[in-house]
Specification:
123 residues, mainly alpha, Arc Repressor Mutant, subunit A, 67% helix, elongated
Length: 123
C-alpha cells in the first residue's frame, strides 16, 4: 500500500490516472503529450504508477496501450472507509432515534441501536 500512496501523492501521476480514466487505451505518446515536461519525466511517472499496480499496459504491435487499474484504490477505500462509514451510520441512526423519540414525547430514549433494532423486530 505504501507504493500506492506514494504514487497518488504526486499531482502529475494523478493527472495521468485521470487521463486514463477518461480515455482508456491511450498510448504512451498520447499520455506524454498531455504534459509540458519531457517525455522521460512522464515515462518515469508512468513507471511508478505501473509498479504500484495502478496502470496496466497492453502491447498492440509496436504500440503500448495504457489502462487505469482502480482495484488498488478500491482496496484502500474498503480498508478504511467501509469501517468508518459503518461507525457513522450507526451513530447517525442513534441520533435519529433520539430525535424522533424526543419529538414524539415517547418515554426514555434507547441508546443501544442494536437493542432498538431487536425491539423493533420483535415488537
Amino acid at each position: 500500500m505504501d507504493a500506492i500512496f506514494a504514487a497518488l501523492a504526486h499531482a502529475g501521476r494523478r493527472r495521468i490516472l485521470d487521463i486514463l480514466k477518461e480515455r482508456p487505451g491511450s498510448t504512451v505518446g498520447e499520455v506524454c503529450a498531455s504534459f509540458a515536461t519531457s517525455r522521460i519525466a512522464a515515462l518515469k511517472n508512468l513507471k511508478v504508477l505501473e509498479e504500484a499496480g495502478l496502470v496496466a499496459s497492453e502491447r498492440v504491435g509496436r504500440t503500448r496501450r495504457l489502462f487505469l487499474n482502480a482495484v488498488p484504490i478500491q482496496m484502500i477505500y474498503e480498508r478504511w472507509m467501509t469501517q468508518y462509514s459503518a461507525l457513522w451510520a450507526e451513530r447517525l441512526t442513534s441520533i435519529k432515534y433520539r430525535v424522533e423519540h424526543a419529538d414524539a414525547g415517547a418515554g426514555p430514549v434507547i441508546r443501544n441501536t442494536k437493542r432498538r433494532k431487536k425491539e423493533l423486530h420483535d415488537g
